[in-house]
Amino acid sequence: MKNKKPFDAVRMMRQIRDALSKEFKSLTFDEQKQYIDAHLRGNATKAQPNPDYRDSEHPRIPL
Predict the structure, then answer these.
(1) Plot region of 61 (φ>0 → left; ψ -120 to 50 → alpha; else → beta)
(2) Average pLDDT per 10 consecutive residues for the chain, totaling 63 residues
(3) Which of 23, 4, 27, 26 is nearest to 15 (CA)?
(4) Angle at 40 between CA 49 and CA 6, to 5 degrees
(5) Distance of CA 55 to CAs 13, 24, 30, 47, 52, Å?
(6) pLDDT computed for residue 5 by the predictor
(7) Residue 43 to residue 24: CA distance in whole angstroms
(8) Alpha carbons 1 and 37: distance in angstroms, whole number
């Protein structure tokens, strides 16, 4: 029988990855880089999708 862990790092990583995937879904690669840079600098805001985004022009980068 497995012991209950007080902190599950794998579960947390998957939750963070899933949340980022949802947020990055409509962003271009450059917008994703800006979002990450802003978070690393500490002056982050919620990501805003580009209204001119087109799948054919900006292929999605798998996370």
Answers:
(1) beta
(2) 79 92 90 88 66 54 52
(3) 23
(4) 100
(5) 27, 13, 14, 18, 10
(6) 75
(7) 18
(8) 43
